[in-house]
Amino acid sequence: MARRSYYIVNGITGYRVLAAPLLLLLLYNHQFTLFKWMLAFSFFTDAVDGYLARNYNAVSKFGSTLDSIADDLTVGVAIIGMIVFNPGFLKGEITLIAILLTLYLLQITLALIRYRKISSFHTYTAKIAAVLQGCFLVLFFFLPGPVYSLFYLTAIITIIDLAEEIALVLVLPEWKNNVKGLYWALKKQPIPENDKL
């Protein structure tokens, strides 16, 4: 792994971690225009760092974990922004939001119990969910009103992703990063001796 590429990729990811408190400060000061542009840039860097990591062989366990933390912080700040910017939307979708939050907290809790740290699977489903989340959350602040069809699609894919990640935590005995998905994880699991003919 080229050291320079490693630092560049993790620096881009680290930007999202550092940007989260600044985004909260912008919300607190009601600087919504700067907030929405900085948030859009944060989601853009999420796409860039993953691409660079794969193409320049800068994938690492540290980078994968940092990316998961940065993703969660960015989405968390965006949700806080939604509460400040348009609280009526979340109130109207409280049941779906509660389901998503419950699954997310369950997945995090199970990973902490099993691995003593958060998961960082980056499955194909998680990548699709992340793109949809980024698109919906950015458009939420740039358009006059929420795109409900995109919200429901994003919620469905995110629920599937969280369910898959919960299953992965239960299936994989050791922490692993960059797992393609449950299907691939099950294929790689050894067959117990007493199950062999």
What does this structure look like?
It is a single chain. This protein is mostly helical. The chain folds into two domains: 1-85, no CATH class; 87-190. Helices cover 78% and strands 0% of the residues. The chain is built from eight helices and no strands. It has helices spanning 3-28, 32-55, 61-85, 87-92, 94-115, 124-142, 148-171, 182-188. The longest helix is centred in the N-terminal third of the chain and has 26 residues, at 3-28.
For the record, the count of structural domains works out to: 2
Question: Distance between the terminal alpha carbons, to the nearest Å?
Answer: 42 Å
Overall mean pLDDT stands at: 90
**Main sheet summary:** none
Q: Tally of extended strands?
A: 0
- Poorly predicted regions are none
Give the helix/strand class: mainly alpha
Strand % is under 5%
Q: What is the H/E order?
A: HHHHHHHH
What is the rounded Rg? 18 Å
- Residues in helices, as a percent range: over 70%
What count of helical segments does DSSP give?
8
Shape assignment: globular
Key phrases:
197 residues, mainly alpha, 2 domains, 8 helices, 0% strand, globular
